[in-house]
Amino acid sequence: MKRRIRWLQWVFSAFVAALSGLLFSSAWASSISAPGMPKLSTPSVLDTASPNALEISRLFWLVMGFSIFVMAIVTAFMIAGIIGGVRDRDHSVEPPQTHGNLKLEVAWTVIPLIILAILLVPTLSAIYQLDGFAAPKDAIEINVVGRQFWWEMAYKDSGVVTANEVVAPVGTAVKLNLASGDTMHSFWIPQVAGKTDLVPGNQRTLWFTPDREGVFYGHCAEICGDSHANMRLRLVALSPENYKKWQAAAQKAAAPPKAELAVTGSQLFISKGCVNCHAVNGVNTYNRTGPNLSFIGSRTSIAAGILANTPENMIRWLRYTDTVKPGVAMPNLGLNQEEAEQLTAYLESLTLPGFDIKRAINSSEGTEPVKVDDSDSAEPKAEVPTAPNNLASLENAQ
Length: 398
Ligand code: CUA
Known about the structure:
Order of helices and strands: HHHEEEEEEEEEEHHEEHHHHH
Mean pLDDT: 86
Bound molecules: dinuclear copper ion
Helix content: 40-55%
Number of strands: 12
Structural class: alpha+beta
Distance between the termini: 68 Å
């Protein structure tokens, strides 16, 4: 019986290992990237893309080092005990009893205390440095609102509003003011910063400085409803020159559609009511119930990062909203294939005027990371931002 249970345990463990391997390797490779699309990095916390994440990974290795050290000592004693026990054939003699041994009790209380005290110093220092209030003064400020199940990014200085993709320049700090529009979410782009919760009625801050170009995968890290697993995001880190071009382009209005299919699609955008929730520069600027679609044609992903931005995926998304993303607020409008194609033609025509962001990302592949000077980053501003009513203050900040 016992042997059978052990055997079942092995099968179960192998099954879980195989399943997680499968999920992690193929899931985002297949659905969220497409040929010609910028390559999406694997979101490893150890493959860092900012000094902030590097700080966290250093802390990880420090804790790991202590853990391995402790484990090695405990294992060594254990092995020595087993060997000694096997050698000592005379089992009739009771081994020495150590219960109530004061020296041992003190030793295993004080040693962990010392280890934890040593770890406390760099941990507190990292928490302090990585908090939003320690962000450099010249940081680009972005108000991020998490909603079921997407992210709004509103750039404080330029007024650019976008969704699900943070665009930022390499070498400049980005400060995020995080708020929630409904329930709790958690902002997490593993390669650039740690998780920070978005709490209703409370504003949190986070900052990081991207140190290399690329597209970095992010994910909501707090269970927030049906499609928590489908609430993803991306960081698009551009060279400073390209960022300037992006910012200039994103402030303009998209060129009106020319192709017949897209023109019909633009009419559907109004008549089907899309315009009531979504904003498009040049059409309506202040509708923020749903994601801002101004330059959706230039984004690398759709549906909050779960699908690569291809016409096929867009049609699928528009026709089967609730199947693609259960619990989504966007209603299924019952579009037929033809209407979905027209609407897709329009949405894909909404590209950044004069700036091909996908080409910019693709051509940057393989470029060396820049050295980010974070010497002044530890200098915190005097005041900690207080904004209890997050949403109202975010709206006013626009
Ligand atoms: Cu938002 Cu999980």
